[in-house]
Structure formats: C-alpha cells, structure tokens
Amino acid sequence: DGIECLSLGEKNIFVGYQSGIANSLGIGNIAIGYQSFYSNTLGYDNTTVGYQSLYANTLGYGNTSYGEYSLVSNTEGNYNTAIGYQALGKNLTGTNNVALGHYAGRYETGSNAFYVDNQDRSTTAGNKAKSLLYGVFAATVAGQSLTINATTNISSLTASEIVITDGSKNIVSAAVATYPSLTELTYVKGVTSAIQ
C-alpha cells in the first residue's frame, strides 16, 4: 500500500495507501498514513504521520506533523510543527508555527505563532483569544509575547500578599515589611494630594 509512482527523489520513506504518490524530486521525507504527503513534488525534509497529514504540501520543507489532517492544507509553509488532529489545518504558506493539541492553531495562516489548545475556535481571532496558550515567536525577547487565556494559580505564592519580582526576575510574594507605607503611597510621582 505504499507509493504507486516512480520518483527521482531519494532518501524518502512512504508508508500507506497513496502516501507520497506525487513526489518527484523531494528528498529526505518520511510520510506514514493514508494519503499522507499526497501532493508533494519538491518539498524536502518533512516528517508526517497521520491520515492525510501534510496532504496538500508541494514545496514546503522542514515541517513536522503528527495527527489526522495535521497541516493538511499546507502547500509551501516551512518549519512548522503541528501535533494533534487538524493542528494548523488551515495553514497554507505560514512558517515557523508551533501548535500542540487537537485543533490547536487550526485557523492560523500567518507565521511565528504558538498555540496550546484542544478546542475548535472557529476563526484565527478565536484561536488567539481562547487557546490556553497563544504566543508569538521573534528574534528578540522584546518582540516575543505569550498570552495565557486562563485563570492562573502559582502555588509558590502566599495568598493575599502583594506579588513582586525579585532580583532574579522570579515572581514571589512580598513580605509585609516590604509593602509601601501609606505615607509613601501619598507621594506617588505626579500626585499632588494625598491618596484617599
């Protein structure tokens, strides 16, 4: 049930009915599953496991997908990682995305996005606003972001105490002695009268 066509590509492994059937010059690919990597012609260094995973890929390279319909629409996107049923399922040309969980990032079509989710959110906006974790990768720390769409409990903190960062940038509970005094609070920069 493996590949049914002659190919000039090399170092490929295709397992499953019509898996990698269109591959012509793509090299270094591994595809396992019914019609996985079905449309590929020149894509290389991809690894995919699952029913119709990376199905539409033609030129994309360096992608990793695991799960039924994961990266199913990807045609030319590169360096994407999709783990889960329909993870990054609508991505066409976006690159460097990471999605963990079934439906994670399903509607994402851009690049450098990070998702942890297990719900179908219906739109890209829904993916970003409701996924347990949504982030943006960038070359600099200042350009990166991580959004937690959940109530967050940090077990190392003490209830009902002010939260600060320590000298190592760790989030900690502030001891009562470190709270600003009422006198200090009345002289906040820019405030011309006592805080009531």
- N-to-C SSE string, H for helix and E for strand: EEEEEEEHEEEEH
What strand line-up does the widest sheet have?
1-2-3-4-5-6-7-8-9
Approximate shape: elongated
Radius of gyration: 24 Å
Low-confidence stretches: none
Portion of residues in helices? Answer: under 10%
Number of helices: 2
Number of strands: 11
Q: Pairing-aware structural class of the strands and helices? A: mainly beta
Distance between the termini: 77 Å
| Largest sheet entry | 9 strands, mixed
Q: What is the average of the pLDDT values?
A: 89
Strand content: 15-25%
Which features does this protein show?
9-stranded mixed beta sheet, mainly beta, elongated, 196 residues
Provide an overview of this structure:
This protein has 196 residues and is mainly beta. Helix content is 6%, strand content 18%. The chain contains 2 helices and 11 strands. The strands form 2 sheets. Strands 1-2-3-4-5-6-7-8-9 form a 9-stranded mixed sheet, covered by helices on one side. A two-stranded antiparallel sheet has the order 10-11. A hairpin with a 5-residue loop joins strand 10 (163-165) and strand 11 (171-173). The chain is elongated, with a radius of gyration of 24 Å. The relative contact order is 0.07.
